[in-house]
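[step 3/7] inverse_fold.run input=structure_tokens len=336
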């Protein structure tokens, strides 16, 4: 009898161990999935509710995510990563991603995915000026890149650090192209940022949504989706401006980490972010989903008119990625 009890107890402990192990595996680590950015907070909750997979929030930016993936290459911690499009091919070339073609892969436009499946676009945003009107006081809302150089905006302009953040690097290129530069010639942008440095800009490394909402950063080079969220969801005195010289539309991508600890859960997460439900959620968070038909008429009505967006051009990801090292080097040496 005692022997049977001992066997039963041992089996019970083994079963409990298996349950605990299974429960522990119901998670996926995503690098660069900040809950305050692009409404990742709602997506992470939906993944938990729909898939039973916990994805802890992670506040890295694209550059920090790739650096961590490379440092951990021999023993990966993450299962999936979310990156600004400029970082897609560099991540692939570093060998930190592995091919996976999620459900609905075939619907993604060819120029918005890696042909082998190392990365794919989930949504995009348009870069412009995220402005807290109340924090400006009596100063007018700037309407152009050139306006930011005016003395009246001294200490009021912010942009994310171009040496590491994808949005910072995009800002350099958007201004560069708007002012007559090319993907190979960064002189107009470097001249602009050197002039802007005289206006004492605020240059954070991390997403700074809350700092704009609070008025700490009155003007931030940022995406339309953050500004619309502030305006319509958080009811803050903010607005989005597409500079009159023009700007860029930028895709955000995801990929499966090579030899990540929970590949099956990682694949489920990647399937989810391209699902009709997730794509509609991105649209409701004021991003343009990669599947345009998932942007509801109600959500689209909150965007600036199409005539304004006509000044926003798609970025050439390969040319931007090629220019990335030069952006970082020249900004660090000549501006920072």
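[step 3/7] decode complete -> sequence:
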């Amino acid at each position: 009898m005692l022997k049977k009890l001992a066997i039963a107890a041992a089996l019970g402990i083994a079963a409990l161990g298996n349950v605990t192990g299974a429960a522990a595996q119901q998670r996926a680590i995503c690098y660069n999935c900040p809950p305050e950015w692009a409404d990742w907070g709602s997506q992470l909750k939906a993944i938990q509710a729909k898939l039973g997979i916990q994805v802890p929030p992670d506040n890295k930016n694209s550059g920090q995510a790739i650096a961590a993936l490379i440092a951990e290459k021999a023993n990966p911690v993450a299962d999936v990563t979310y990156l600004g499009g400029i970082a897609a091919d560099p991540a692939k070339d570093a060998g930190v991603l592995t091919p996976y073609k999620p459900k609905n892969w075939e619907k993604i436009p060819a120029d918005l995915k890696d042909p082998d499946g190392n990365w794919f676009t989930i949504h995009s945003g348009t870069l412009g000026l995220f402005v807290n009107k109340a924090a400006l006081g009596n100063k007018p809302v700037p309407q152009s890149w050139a306006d930011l150089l005016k003395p009246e905006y001294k200490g009021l302009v912010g942009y994310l650090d171009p040496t590491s953040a994808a949005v910072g690097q995009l800002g350099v290129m958007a201004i560069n192209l708007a002012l007559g530069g090319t993907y190979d010639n960064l002189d107009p942008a470097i001249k602009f940022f050197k002039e802007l440095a005289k206006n004492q800009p605020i240059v954070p490394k991390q997403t700074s949504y809350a700092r704009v909402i609070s008025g700490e950063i009155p003007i931030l080079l940022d995406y339309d989706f953050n500004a619309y969220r502030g305006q319509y969801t958080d009811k803050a005195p903010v607005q989005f401006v597409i500079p009159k010289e023009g700007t860029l539309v930028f895709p955000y991508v995801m990929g499966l980490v090579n030899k990540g600890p929970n590949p099956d859960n990682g694949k489920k997460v990647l399937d989810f972010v391209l699902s009709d439900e997730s794509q509609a959620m991105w649209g409701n968070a004021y991003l343009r989903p990669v599947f345009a038909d998932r942007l509801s008429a109600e959500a689209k009505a909150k965007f600036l008119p199409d005539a304004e967006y006509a000044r926003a051009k798609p970025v050439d990801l390969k040319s931007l990625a090629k220019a990335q090292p030069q952006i970082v080097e020249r900004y660090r040496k000549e501006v920072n």
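[step 4/7] annotate
The CA atoms of residues 77 and 333 lie 33 Å apart.
The two ends are 77 Å apart (CA to CA).
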